[in-house]
Specification:
heterodimer; A: 381 residues; alpha/beta; B: 81 residues; alpha+beta; four-stranded antiparallel sheet; 2 helices; 33% helix; globular; disordered C terminus
């Protein structure tokens, strides 16, 4: 049994980077391959294979700590961003607590809050309207707020929310701030120090170019609650979980092979620079907006406060039908609700969903041009 | 060679400590804390030669990394790993 080879492998134009980045820097693949050959289980033994794994974890912690302006012990490895968000929410929120969220949150935020039975207050539903978002958060946050949870960039519309302002409001009112950096890590500057967040959750497999099954939770000053318990390679005589990071949250054998790839991905970002990646993505997004000329398309776009993602609907065709046509022509996009129905409710696309194009640092201008030409020619098909 | 042991609460702390000592050219190795030397169970320690132990202590204290300094006095040990 071998892995199925993707249709059009090598020719596919991959524009589904908001789900996961498929095209990684080559060193990521190399790092994972080497890790599979050389690594034991980190933190469980002193032999060379375990030490290689342990050293790699630490190198990844240090590199991530530098990128996000925190310390290595506050960098916790998770399975993905959802895992990290769950830890944050289950630490800060209990049944009946008031939680303020933006109108663009993913189900990774909504579902755990719903499960807990939190009182959810949605603030700021006007797409690309930063001032309105700021005003709405200012109005909603008060002394009774248990937490504010906000996405940095909408995974449906690419809207960059004013997180500096929101974090500031939280600091003024002494409310814990949680940032969902699923779409922004590796693309926009993020500073734990400046935001003074309680938690920042991010996936490893999107903008950080790591493999799937990797994620990072940056922890602030609040000691997190555990969502799973087990062996940590430390304090083993005690039945309770260690009250120290990162061990408190990292149980069982870690995904060291994946983290080796994540380290290579973060090193790539460090080498290229977040500002350069941001510039590249903004350029490609403006190119895409400029090139898409099909009058049947309703495009959700803004000249400001948008990055990485462009959503649109076809006035005459269902999103899924367009997605199918694109797929047959070897363009990879995503259609539907993108696990964020709240964002669609906010914008008014809950009846249709959208066709979502999402780019990465690896996307080429020629791919954007080819995609736009195909979409513009769709009328003739 | 005779060693002293610096025990840490987590592997990450031991690794941070190792980084600090290496910067100051103090030789150290991360090992699993010998069971007889720990009251809390499994853990991670730095093995540092006796001649460097005092220097190591100063730098680790200065860096604010919590540690417990132990000599290996478990039965059967001659402190000479």
């Amino acid at each position: 049994m071998t892995l199925p080879v993707a249709i059009g492998d090598g020719d596919m134009i991959y524009l589904d980077n908001a789900a996961t980045t498929l095209i990684k820097p080559p060193e990521v693949t190399e790092a994972v391959k080497l890790a599979l050959q050389k690594m034991g289980s980190a933190g469980r033994s002193s032999h060379r294979a375990a030490a290689i794994a342990g050293d790699t974890l630490f190198a990844c912690r240090e590199t991530a700590a530098k990128l996000f302006e925190t310390t290595a012990d506050r960098v916790v490895f998770t399975f993905n961003a959802t895992h990290g968000i769950n830890i944050a929410i289950k630490t800060l929120v209990k049944r009946g607590d008031k939680v303020v969220i933006s109108g663009f949150e993913h189900n990774a935020v909504l579902r755990p809050l719903h499960e807990i039975g939190a009182q959810i207050v949605v603030a700021g539903r006007k797409l690309f309207d930063v001032k309105d978002t700021e005003r709405a958060f200012e109005k909603a946050i008060d002394g009774d707020t248990a937490a504010v949870i906000c996405t940095h960039v909408s995974n449906v519309f690419g809207y960059i929310l004013p997180i500096d302002k929101i974090a500031n409001l939280c600091a003024q009112k002494n409310v814990p701030f949680v940032l969902d950096a699923a779409q922004s890590a590796g693309v926009l500057p993020i500073s734990m120090k400046k935001l003074n967040a309680a938690f920042i959750a991010m996936p490893g497999h999107k903008g950080l170019f790591g493999p799937q099954g990797t994620g990072i939770l940056l922890c602030g000053d609040i000691m997190p609650k555990t969502v799973i318990e087990g062996g940590t390679g430390s304090f083993s005589k005690f039945s309770h979980m260690p009250m120290i990071l990162p061990d408190r949250l990292e149980v069982g054998t870690l995904n060291c092979h994946g983290i080796a790839g994540l380290l290579a991905g973060i090193n790539y970002i460090d080498r290229v620079g977040v500002d350069e990646i941001k510039r590249h993505e903004l350029y490609l997004l403006s190119k895409l907006k400029q090139k898409l000329k099909n009058e049947d398309l309703r495009i959700y776009q803004s000249d400001q406060n948008q990055i990485g993602v462009l959503s649109f609907v076809h006035e005459k065709l269902r999103c899924e039908a367009v997605g199918e046509m694109l797929s047959e022509a070897d363009f990879a996009v995503r259609t539907g609700f993108h696990c964020a129905p709240l964002a669609h409710e906010s914008v008014g696309s809950i009846e249709t969903g959208t066709i979502r194009v999402s780019i990465s640092a690896m996307t080429k201008e020629s791919e954007i041009v080819e995609f736009s030409e195909f979409m513009n020619d769709m009328k003739k098909l | 060679m005779i060693y002293d042991f610096f025990s840490f609460q987590t592997l990450t702390q031991a690794q941070s400590a190792l980084r600090i000592l290496r910067k100051r050219e103090i030789a150290a190795t991360i090992i699993s804390t010998p069971v007889g030397m720990s009251s809390v169970g499994c853990g991670h320690s730095l093995r540092v030669s006796l001649k460097d132990a005092r220097k190591a202590e100063i730098h680790l204290t200065r860096a604010g990394i919590p540690y417990k300094k132990t000599a290996d006095d478990t039965p059967g040990s001659d402190r000479g790993w």
